[in-house]
Amino acid sequence: MANSSYHEVLQRASSFLKAKGKEEQAAKYVLLGRLDWDLTQWLLQMNNPMPEACYQRFQQDIQLLLTDYPPQYILGWCEFYGARYTVTEATLIPRPETEELVEACLKANQVDSLNVLDIGTGSGIIAISLKRLRPTWVINATDISEKALAVAQINAKKHQTPITFRLGNLGEPFLSEKFDIILANLPYIGENEWTEMDRSVRTYEPKSALFAANQGLALFEELANQLPTLLKGTGQLFLEIGYQQGEKVREIVRKKYPEKEIQILKDLNGLDRIIWLK
Description:
alpha/beta; Rossmann fold; seven-stranded mixed β-sheet
């Protein structure tokens, strides 16, 4: 492929993926990610010859895309709420809906000093985003996966955000403490929804971070039992939920807090996405 430009190589790769029934945009996502170029840099350099080493690596990436391997795992990172985070097969790939969870928490809380717990932190994106934008908050985080916590600690060090990480199930590592805010993006996909998931998700992302028993509600029920111990009387709860779970999760939380206001917030697509206990 000597003398082929970046643009020519990308065109061929995208057409090849499309012919194989794969997402053609993934080729550009991976190529620009490998080069660490934004769209402006791409426009300035796309007609330059692609170096042979870059070409060979890109061909390997295309072969991975053919197997439905997620582009974020190929790169080893993804963007979330304006920052870059390491991701591995031990962690869920962050979704845009989770950015809305962070946004809801930040909009509702402008004070300087709060004690916050992120339950099921995964790659640490929620905890780190909050610490980046509210540096005076005390941020704590848990996960049941030792490998996921290791990735979260790498990300926290990269972003210079001091966070207390503890290994354990849901809020158990912090049951002796009380928090102003608890956030959780727990596994909420029911096992009956398995066939609806993309093949890349079913094959490569950690199932323990996606699926839960009782039609995806089991961990919400388990966490609800811990909330009276973990959450201050004036505390707030933010839960990311499946788009069909709003009323069911609200009732789970209401059983523990019948006197509190519990809102269902919608995402940018107009779907139920966040439970907010005020």
